[in-house]
Amino acid sequence: MKKGDVWFFDKDIYIKEYASCVGVKEGEGPLRDGFDVIGEDDRFGESTWEKAECRMFETACRKAVEKSGLSDSDIGCLIGGDLLNQCISTSFAARDLGFKTLGVYGACSTMAESMALGAALIEAGLEEYVLCAASSHFCTAERQYRYPLEYGGQRPQTSQWTATACGAVILGKEGKVRIKAACPGRVFDPGVRDVNNMGAAMAQAAYETLSRYFKDGEKKPEEHDLIVTGDLSEVGAAIVDKLFRLDGVNLGERYGDCGLMLFDRQKQDVHSGGSGCGCSAAVLCARILPRMIKHELKRVLFCPTGALLSPLSAAQGESIPGICHLICLEDAE
Amino acid sequence: MKKGDVWFFDKDIYIKEYASCVGVKEGEGPLRDGFDVIGEDDRFGESTWEKAECRMFETACRKAVEKSGLSDSDIGCLIGGDLLNQCISTSFAARDLGFKTLGVYGACSTMAESMALGAALIEAGLEEYVLCAASSHFCTAERQYRYPLEYGGQRPQTSQWTATACGAVILGKEGKVRIKAACPGRVFDPGVRDVNNMGAAMAQAAYETLSRYFKDGEKKPEEHDLIVTGDLSEVGAAIVDKLFRLDGVNLGERYGDCGLMLFDRQKQDVHSGGSGCGCSAAVLCARILPRMIKHELKRVLFCPTGALLSPLSAAQGESIPGICHLICLEDAE
Questions:
Q1: Is a pLDDT exceeding 90 seen at residue B153?
Q2: Of A85, A94, A184, the CB nearest to B310
Q3: pLDDT (tens digit, 9 = 90+) per residue, A25-67?
Q4: CB contacts, 8 Å: A124 with chain B
Q5: What is the value of pTM for the model shown?
Q6: SS3 call for A132
Q7: In A36-155, which ranges are E strands?
Q8: Quick one: closest CA in B to A129, which residue?
Q9: pLDDT for residue A256 is more than 90
Q10: Shared domain check, A184 and A68
Q11: Mean pLDDT across the stretch B159-177?
Q12: For labelling alongside B82, which of A67, A255, B11, B97 has CA 20 to 30 A away?
């Protein structure tokens, strides 16, 4: 059911299972106990970083299917994406996985986009089980978006650390966490041109999507136990908090950001925090969903954020447009 | 309704309106009378090729909305994609268009992916009108995937000419052409490594999706007036024809390829034919849909094909995986 800009799923659609696969640094962070697979190194047995990301993507997907007790033939289709040029992590993993595949691109908001579309396919009665996944890898992203790793470029304090991580969820008609609603984002461009300050570029998109959800969905922030943005990290999360305060709304302790949850910022030298498609996807699977299943969180707004730039658009003087897709999750028990 | 791998849309979902915007060379080709907007040059008033593609994308979308008689606020969301790194044509056009946006990536199969997902959103009751679009630009694609234009690289006869084109359709609950079914593709890799022979890389994916559709959808090729692949062009289309002949099926005159329809191959020096996301999208809007509305074609299988490589995957020795998504269109009158 459509209500303003919000999609409410009338059929009961659940997260049946989930899994995550991450790199070494992520596995040393505060969420280490929540990951299903932590790489021995960040190469995952492959000869290039890009092939490593692909293998990590495949590993998370296979783990989710294995944990679910479903067989491969039960999975209707895979909806997934990543940050690499031509989404090669997803495409090459999909080649090996063999599922029908729908590639999506929403930069670091991809996990929510894939879940919103996956839930829509089940709502429409077109699929029974949909596998949704998103990945990123520090070493592939760094050399594609910024500098060769060997260059050792200096990183300003506003910069974020792209997570080496993949999260995968299987949506279906049974499970312990329900997908209640989704609110797709609009592209919003506050005019930020600093490619080392993605948090500031994406923050207004998060504020915009959340505000629309509260208005059209007739919900209040205090009806949620956790409102978590994707990877705004320190700079961007502070902007979201402030924008809501200007509206007279105090998000308070219930507001968090996946980029601030994945790493220990003090000990792990990640500057403003984590980022990448895999950041919110892995935090969802390693932290948010396990807490919901333990009934520690009853209703969560999961709001991954994406910076829709390319190195070329930045070189041509363009500012950085942001987007934020929202998923409302509820404890179903 | 799901039937094997095929999505049948039970609610009546139609193409309400459509529009295309193309470059100079496309406007000089055999479909010249079908395009809504033909650029005076391929820059569309912009200072870079990438900004030009973005403007072309926006122009096609605005034209479709204008022709439909709808207002911007009627459009539920935009589903779109392109070939550029980080899908910047779509994202930056979406910034200016202002719709909720879901970015998709299926290389040159993107138009069918966006239409399949758009129809699913309407089937699920989540949106009333969805704008679906895909674009490509010769000058942006050439320098991103191959060589700088100024280099004047020699092109082998198997190579294709990336279309400077965007097609946009609005899906809704009324119109003259109905979207009856969709069949999402699997990633299929026949092991082709020649980046100048995309047709061969994608042909088996087209054969695979079509075969699944005929089997699961319980349809025969002869029940369709036109079966049209995306951009296999001369080399790939001949492979599809041959693969079906090996199964004892003669697709015959009803089989065509958008890459062979967009240009006059003899006069326009495009070697094997046209390609790019915009190729099938623009041929749909300039040729296929107008013929359906004139009742010259009653039932059409529109099957855009995508080559899921990146320059980096090719440089790392990977072969080129292909994908093909299918849309079944029917004259609704």
A1: no
A2: A85
A3: 999 999 999 999 999 999 999 999 999 999 999 999 999 999 9
A4: 7, 120-121, 123-124
A5: 0.98
A6: strand
A7: 37-38, 77-82, 100-103, 130-136
A8: B2
A9: yes
A10: no
A11: 97
A12: B11
Note the maximum CA span of chain B.
Answer: 53
Decide which of A172, A195, A229 is a domain's last residue: A172
State whether ipTM is beyond 0.85.
yes
Answer yes or no: do B229 and B252 share one domain: yes
Residue ending a domain, among B116, B144, B172, is B172
pLDDT tens for A194-244 read: 999 999 999 999 999 999 999 999 999 999 999 999 999 999 999 999 999
CA distances from B275 to B52, B107, B230 (A): 18, 10, 8
Burial of A306 (0-12, 13-18, 19+ CB in 10 A): buried
Q: Nearest C-alpha of chain B: how many angstroms from A110?
A: 9
Using an 8 Å CB-CB cutoff, list chain B residues near A185: 100-101
Residue A73 and residue A39 in one domain = yes
Task: Provide the residue type at B326 as one letter.
Answer: L
CB-closest option in B103, B126, B187 to A94? B187
One-letter amino acid for residue B235 of the chain: V
Are B187 and A101 within 8 A, CB to CB?
A: yes
- Give the list of residues 6+ apart from residue A173 with CB closer than 8 angstroms, or none: A11, A12, A13, A14, A122, A128
Residue B319 burial (10 A CB sphere; 0-12, 13-18, 19+): middle
CATH classification of the domain holding B294: 3.40.47.40
Residue A310 has its nearest CB partner, among B88, B104, B309, at B88
Residue B3 lies in a domain: no
pLDDT at A1: 87
Please write the tens of the pLDDT for every residue from B264-275: 999 999 999 999
Is the pLDDT at A252 greater than 90? The verdict is yes
